[in-house]
Design brief:
With 456 residues, the protein is α+β, with helices and mostly antiparallel strands. The protein contains five helices and 27 strands. Strands 7, 8, 25, 26 and 27 form a five-stranded antiparallel beta sheet that branches. Strands 9-10-11-12 form a four-stranded antiparallel beta sheet. Helix 2 packs antiparallel against helix 3.
């Protein structure tokens, strides 16, 4: 509105000086209201003659012919154009297409939003279409200076001085077959091909979602509920910074994007402090190990109260049987397609990993498996489809998934699946069966790993 008044007063001022001026108000091609202010040229009686139009047509025709020859050459050398076995008539029609498009653009007064004309100081300077052809790149040797566009009543005029020519250059990149396999739908979380259970065969590179800014976030735990209860959803994200002696804060985020920004929607204060990074969120509850105890508790996220608590018989706690990185990781909870698990060790098992299936409502132990994998000898572990997997190192950049224990057969086997510790302090790894990803905490950084399972 201010701009309109300025134009109006400018028109009145010029009118007082006796010069011809016009103010026009109309919608443009996009439907926006625009004001156009036009003043007759004080030095030019008429616009430049149209004799240069013929020169422009000749230059455009020569340029179109050059583009056609380059496209034809690329087709002969096996570019991304039509196959050599096509009929000659089809080739000719495709070769003539660039010239037709260029002439049509000129006849359309070089409208900028068509991707052909770019307005210059004295008129439009030619530039190529934004996407000339798939698999090609545009390389130029010059450009026209950019100036404000002329008024609506000004006719575009060709200026040959800043003219630049363009070339099409074919670009090809060799990609290893292994990389193509990693990028198939089978490796993407949530795809149909990855539905159902199977054995872990590949772990991708970590993707960073957020970073803790205080020392309390040196290590921690973050997660999503694979089976949420309203009002929470699968996008609701939970986080605990685990450094400290009185860790009670559970941060709630509406989505992972909010987590990355660092602004929680709510902060839950737990009635009891939790220990280390073994907590999980499942079926509307936070399952955690209360500090200095061998018990597991369920905190109801809607009611904001502890609804169940049970001791794990003989389980080591507070540094008796932690993972190799320490951190009082004696009791570690996990979730997979089949439900809730607890990973720990006992004096009877002599430090070997013990795996128990829990009832998510009462925390009653349904069944227990004793493995031959030493808990202090691995950096972390998680469960997928009833199989326990362990990580070899928390600090080596090129670690591996080194063991698997199958609860269906009661047997273990050695593995060597590459696993990257990008920030070299892995304190938490959990599997999310809804997203088919690993969630991890690596030295202040909250990351995910894409995975691939073998077909059942």
């Amino acid at each position: 509105m201010v701009g309109a008044w300025l134009l109006l007063w400018g028109g009145l001022a010029l009118g007082c000086r006796g010069e011809t001026a016009f103010l026009r108000r109309a919608d443009d091609s996009t439907g926006h209201c625009t004001y156009s202010f036009t003043v007759a040229s004080p030095v030019e009686a008429t616009c430049p003659d149209a004799g240069r139009v013929t020169e422009l047509r000749a230059e455009l025709a020569a340029l179109a012919a050059r583009l056609s020859r380059l496209e034809s050459r690329e087709r002969v050398t096996g570019g991304s154009g039509p196959r050599g076995g096509e009929a000659g008539g089809a080739r000719d029609s495709q070769q003539a297409a660039p010239a037709t498009r260029l002439e049509a653009a000129y006849r359309g007064h070089w409208t900028p939003d068509r991707g052909i004309g770019v307005w210059g100081g004295n008129g439009p300077a030619w530039s190529p279409p934004r996407a000339a052809r798939a698999g090609t790149a545009v390389r130029g040797t010059g450009s026209a200076p950019a100036h404000p566009a002329p008024g609506p009543a000004a006719a575009p005029r060709w200026d040959p001085q800043p003219l630049a020519y363009q070339e099409l250059q074919s670009e090809r990149t060799e990609v290893p077959v292994s990389r193509l396999l990693e990028e198939t739908a089978l490796g993407r979380p949530g795809s149909e091909d990855s539905a159902g259970c199977g054995e872990l065969v590949w772990v991708g590179k970590p993707v960073v979602f957020g970073r803790a800014e205080s020392i309390a976030g040196k290590y921690g735990v973050w997660m999503k509920d694979p089976e949420p209860v309203p009002p929470f959803t699968r996008e609701t994200t939970w986080r605990v910074d685990a450094v400290g002696t009185e860790v009670r804060q559970l941060f709630q985020y509406e989505a992972a994007e909010q987590l990355a920004q660092g602004y929680p929607a709510k902060v839950h204060i737990l009635p009891r402090p939790l220990e280390s990074t073994g907590a999980v969120v499942y079926h509307g509850g936070l399952f955690f190990q209360p500090r200095r105890s061998r018990t597991v508790a369920r905190y109801d996220l809607r009611g904001e109260a502890v609804t169940a608590e049970r001791e794990i018989p003989g389980a080591g706690y507070h540094g008796q049987y932690p993972y190799s990185w320490g951190g009082y990781t004696d009791i570690d909870l996990a979730v997979d397609e089949t439900g809730l698990w607890v990973i720990y060790s006992t004096e009877k098992a002599r430090g070997a990993i013990v795996l128990s299936k829990l009832d998510p409502e009462t925390l009653e132990i349904r069944r227990t498996w004793e493995t031959n994998i030493r808990k202090r000898g691995v950096a972390n572990s998680f469960v997928i489809c009833g199989t326990l997997y362990t990580v070899s190192s928390y600090s080596a950049p090129n670690a591996t998934i080194n063991f698997a224990y199958d609860t269906a057969t009661g047997t273990s086997r050695a593995l060597s699946i590459p696993f990257e510790n990008r920030f070299r302090y892995l304190s938490m790894v959990d599997y999310n069966p809804a997203e088919r990803q690993l969630f991890a905490w690596d030295s202040f950084n909250m990351v995910t790993y894409p995975i691939r399972l073998s077909r059942p």
